[in-house]
Amino acid sequence: MKALIKVGYGCNENCTFCHTQEQRDLQGSAAEVENKIHRAKALGHTMVVLSGGEPTIRPELLRWAALVAQLDMDFGLVTNGLVLSYPEVRERLLASRLKYVYMSLHAGAAEVHDRIVRAASFDTALVALRALSGRGLDLTVNCVVTRQNLAHLEGLVECVSEVPDAILKFSATEPKGGALRLADLVVPRIGDAAAAVLEALRHAAGRMPGRARHGGFPLCLLPGFEGAYDDLRSHGYWTMVEIGEPDLVPIDSNNQLHPSSACDGCRLRGGCPGLFRGYHARHGAGELRPPPRGATSNAFDWALERVAPDAVPAERCPLIGQGTAPYERARHLFVRHAGKLARYRADTRDFADSDLEQIKHGFGQVYLDASRKPAPDDFARDLVKLVRSELCRPCPLRDACTGLYEPSFEPIFDRDEHSLRVALGAVHGDVLEIGCGGGRLTTSWLAAVAAGTVRLVGIDPDGDALDRLRTSMPTATLHLGEAESVLPTLPGQSFDHVVVGHAWNHLVHPATVVVQALRLLRPGGELWVADDVPFGLARTARQQRAAQRSAATWMHRRNDAAQQAHQTIIGAATPAGLTLTMIERRDVGPDTSNQWLLRYRWSPA
């Protein structure tokens, strides 16, 4: 785990795109930097990486590297590499456990690179890069893509391909600092930049296979290279700190956003950086090209990092004393139980940070995996709900802190499922269930179907599941296929109830299904829609490994909660002249399971 510590913003180059161009005279004191190095050690970091500005111009550089090594951590640098061209400096840093270098090089030719950095530095940087090769370093060459080098990226591929252990990364320019003041001259349109990077990545695939990355570009603009995305998290960073900040803070992506107009529902959203806010404010989202929907995850893991005795009295919070600032509100999880305090962290790329925030703190869907199974299949027995401690309720840090969680042994899955089954058990007449193969709700009518008070028609794309259902309900009429295809084949039929049972988020075209299903409802008939929101599981490393070996697959096409589903249902019904009245709504919250319900009555317009 890396900590990124800014030591000051002075630099021996003057890049056109520099984020801190107006702060170049701001330098951190040696004491401030050293205190932050000690703090990184106390937090459990395994590497300290110094950045700036340019950290290598500080006279304390070698002393700081030695301090990091004395604290039994590895050392790293984010640098332009110029000082590393000096053999005596380079060798002393390598002796002080220098293991990581993230080095700037913005073209494969001096005339282009030097024009961007506004210094005659290309040849010196190349000397440093070649001297660092073969020294066992985690070595990345970072190229910021500007208007000046847009046509020269393949030349950089040729240059870096000759350094066999270097990774080459193309980074989008953020409109910030110098790049904001000179935006029209420095910042290319994201579509143009992505097109150039795409060609460079294809060229690199032949010249230096597996050694080219990209960062800051929307994934939809780099088809075929989505897996080559690279950012602070992929480099193992956990925290960072600027000059003057009192404590290390989590890395974040608050300077980027996913525009709703293009990104809602995109299957790449969780691992995609989206657009820089400054860029979106100037140009909008019209250049994005989101791919068609695909399968998406509906769960993620918090991996156990450490368990320690909880020496703090029960009436006090154990997080306050150690400082809450370094812990990510959504990605960290602290669980207090039986005299111990466990810390977990989620590194998932299946969900964006804003999604994780909603799942953890909005919906409150946090669980401990208490099973020994690769994939829990009986939530009521396999999962223990984790709830925010009562100590958090009056705390002034509540809305900024990651929170303290404790297990709740209330059987909420049984409670919520039973409540829904009881309600469905009261229906009678002709019932159409979409997604009947799962069986979670179908068994509500087992006795009623046998007695003839419910005449069930079911639709499901899983043939094996339908075969099992036929065994228990031989009088039910079951159709194999997707709802969108089967519903039009039922002309002349009508129903008292249409139930979409835990299948809404699996539908290919939910709005189409709504219209088709409502046209099969009798006047006064009811539409029931129930499904689940995503949840997070606190797991040990062993449980994670078992889950990764599991054959379990994700079939969700979306992760709608009740509000999104309601908007889709009303948005589809109203233009079709189908009038719906909501008669019940159950939302997901911290005191519920992850199941929601919408219930409507239909009457002709």
Given this structure, which CATH class of the largest domain is correct? Alpha Beta
Q: Structurally, how many domains make up the residues?
A: 3
Strand order of the largest sheet: 7-6-5-4-3-2-1-8-9
CATH superfamily of the largest domain: Aldolase class I
Strand content: 15-25%
The largest β sheet comes out as: 9 strands, mixed
The Cα radius of gyration reads: 28 Å
* CATH topology assignment of the largest domain: TIM Barrel
Look at the structure and give the mean pLDDT: 93
* DSSP helix fraction: 25-40%
Task: Find the count of extended strands (DSSP E, 2+ residues).
Answer: 25
Q: Which CATH-level-2 architecture of the largest domain?
A: Alpha-Beta Barrel
Number of helices: 21
Q: Runs with pLDDT <50, length 5+?
A: none
N- and C-termini, Cα separation:
61 Å
Shape: globular
Structural class, by secondary structure, is alpha/beta
